[in-house]
Amino acid sequence: MKPTSRKPVLEQLHPTDQAMLALLSQHRFATTKQLARLAAQSYASPASALRQASRHLKRLTEQHLVLRLERRVGGWQAGSAPGIWTLTTSGARLVHASPGQRRPSALSTTFIDHLLAITETRVTLTEITRTSGSEVSRLELEPDCWRTYLDAYGAQAVLKPDLFVEITGQEFTDSYFVEVDRETENPARVLNKCHQYVEHYRAQAGSEEVYPAVLWVVPTEYRCLQLNRYLRADPRLPGGLFTVTTIAQLPDVIAAGPVPTSVVTSSTQQTDLTVKGGHP
Questions:
Q1: Which domains does the chain have, with CATH numbers?
Q2: Half-sphere exposure for 13 (CA within 13 Å, toward CB)
Q3: Comparing C-alpha atoms, which of 257, 262, 221, 222 is closest to residue 241?
Q4: CA–CA gap between residue 17 and residue 25 (Å, rounded)
Q5: Taking the CB of the first residue and of the last residue of the chain, which one, N or C, has fewer CB atoms within 10 A?
Q6: Which residue has better confidence, 75 or 235?
Q7: What contacts 220, CB < 8 A, 6 or more positions away?
Q8: Which of 254, 243, 252, 256 lies closest to 216 in space, CA to CA?
Q9: What is the DSSP letter of 259?
Q10: What CA–CA distance (Å, rounded) separates 214 from 218?
Q11: What is the pLDDT of residue 263?
Q12: Residue 54: partners with Cβ closer than 8 Å, 6 or more residues away
């Protein structure tokens, strides 16, 4: 009788394998280094974490659960070509991911680059909380982080951030909508998105929930200065609601916490915008 190969069962996989599959299910793409950094606290050094991540990915590849992209992607070409990973169809089925997920070959490099930047932001936030004694207590990716509301005309609208994250420490809880910018959009489109956040905030007026701060995570210092200049020049945008930062600056931004501000909710009324948290 010809032997048959046994399909892997999720619960029987190594915990690190399960964690890698879960992250790829959430983010769709991640580099070897990103996956290693998420597991770094289990190893003696970053180099050890990278070696072990490569070993786990090799095993998952042999089980036909993940595959490595054969092409380079825009902003991830510095140095040697990074390993960029995604789930196979079998891997997606194993972790109950959406069966409608498109093949990587059908996606543009610009789109994959954006998804990798979102993964990088998530990994960085996790690293920040590990060293600060706080934790990522809530994380929502698209489409779970999207918010439906009624616009000024009473029509249904949808706010679509890239991430929603809640960070909890001993004496605070801060929440953020996160927009990951790749310097591909005209600043005017960024301003339009900011105005949608203000509209969404106004639609929540009277709600007991505190409104999240909005983080724009950008790739360069030049882009940071550019967007800040546009935001400051628009009198209709409350400065404290929006923070523009690079990944390198993100630890300081998270440590400082959201900045309280105010938003005009009508022609005669100004309402305090209490962003969630505020550090003592």
A1: 10-107 (1.10.10.10), 114-273 (3.40.1350)
A2: 22
A3: 262
A4: 12
A5: N
A6: 235
A7: 183, 246
A8: 243
A9: -
A10: 13
A11: 55
A12: 32, 36, 83
